[in-house]
Design a protein that fits this description.
mainly alpha, two-stranded antiparallel ribbon, globular
């Protein structure tokens, strides 16, 4: 056996402890998947270059937005011109719906699935309707929303019809994903948030229409891996709190500055969308949630009250914050909904949150019921 073959064999360690080295194996798999993914994309671009279509598939290498010019060039892409020249196996969707016969699972999962799928339809109409995108950010931080604006244009152009142009859609999504992956290290916090929200909408679009295109195998994993990289940057550079000891979720939202609160609440909601998706589909990549220091759905903050989320200015928001005499809004987490031995004060706080909650909060309440159903817990890969 050759030395290279021995190296591959040495990676698989059959031991008495199945979990031993699991994290290292996962890192290896992720890197291998992304390496193969980008290798295929380079091969595809090389073929197109020989046919005189270099401009169609070119991806910006600097931290710049997808300009209208790039959008118009991409719109000239003809899927049929490549389909016959590239022999790639059609990969099945990475989002496999969980199956469970329990009554709770049967009743609850379809509602969560419709909520997640509905975010894509809302984005087609207007990003203001999406449950994890704050309307103030769309106006006040317009220059930082290039990735999100590009996402909106892609969805509106190729998804806004009774028969969406899926080959063109997935091509545009693939270009946008690779652009975000290559440039995210140079983005500020609002640009990272915009990119994470755009990737989340792409993931939900893939989840809603699971038909995979042979030209882009592994797209689902590439999207999930990119989202994981974005949240790694957000957590490391913009959510660090030395006094925060709850490492299974983000630190409590700040209450002194409206825009700072919007950023933290938006990050929490965007991450919660991913964890909701994990409740109804089997996903092995994304925000690190199986590591010792990783977030888990139980540690995510409960979505804020509707009045706080929909406040139109800082003064209106401050009025509601000052009226929160119990301080329950920035403290409660999804795990608190599962606590059977909660004291009377916490039960009262949960009741207040339920009364003031928005649509997002209702879905989180339903998801918490799945968490109490042991049969729907994630199995260790």
């Amino acid at each position: 056996m050759s030395a290279s073959a021995n190296q591959h064999c040495d990676f698989i360690n059959i031991s008495g402890e199945p979990n031993e080295g699991r994290h290292a194996r996962r890192i290896h798999v992720r890197r291998t998947v992304m390496t193969n993914h980008h290798k295929r994309k380079r091969q595809k671009k090389s073929l197109e270059s020989r046919k005189g279509h270099t401009q169609v598939l070119q991806v910006p290498t600097q931290a710049a937005p997808l300009t209208p010019a790039c959008r118009s060039e991409a719109s000239s892409f003809d899927p049929q011109s490549i389909r016959g020249d590239i022999s790639l196996s059609v990969a099945s969707s990475s989002f496999r719906l969980k199956t469970n016969s329990s009554p709770m699972h049967t009743r609850t999962c379809p509602i969560i699935i419709r909520f997640l799928s509905g975010q894509v339809i809302k984005a087609v109409r207007s990003l203001r309707y999406v449950s994890f995108i704050h309307r103030h950010v769309l106006g006040a931080h317009g220059q930082s929303n290039d990735n999100l604006m590009a996402c909106s244009e892609i969805l509106c152009t190729h998804y806004n019809s009774s028969s969406p142009n899926l080959p063109m859609l997935w091509h545009e999504v693939s270009v946008a994903q690779e652009h975000i992956y290559r440039t995210c290290a140079n983005l500020n916090k609002w640009q990272l948030l915009s990119a994470a929200q755009a990737i989340t909408l792409y993931i939900l679009a893939r989840f809603r229409d699971t038909t995979n295109d042979g030209m882009f195998p592994g797209m689902d994993i590439a999207l999930l891996y990119t989202m994981g990289k974005l949240f790694e940057l957000i957590k490391e550079d913009h959510l660090r709190d030395r006094n925060h000891t709850h490492k299974r979720g983000p630190s409590p939202n700040p209450t002194s500055d409206w825009e700072d609160w919007i950023f933290h609440e938006s990050v929490n909601r965007t991450a919660t969308i991913y964890f909701l998706l994990r409740r109804v589909a089997t996903i092995d990549f994304g925000i690190e949630c199986d590591e010792q220091s990783g977030w888990r759905i139980e540690g995510m903050l409960l979505p804020s009250a509707r009045a706080l989320w929909e406040a139109r200015d800082a003064a209106m928001w401050k009025t509601w914050v000052d009226g929160d005499v119990d301080g329950q809004l920035p403290a409660l987490r999804i795990g608190n909904l599962l606590s059977a031995d909660a004291d009377s004060c916490q039960k009262r706080q949960i009741a207040i949150w339920q009364e003031e909650s928005c649509e997002f909060g209702i879905i989180v309440m339903l998801a918490s019921q799945l968490l109490m159903d042991k049969d729907t817990e994630d199995s260790d890969p």
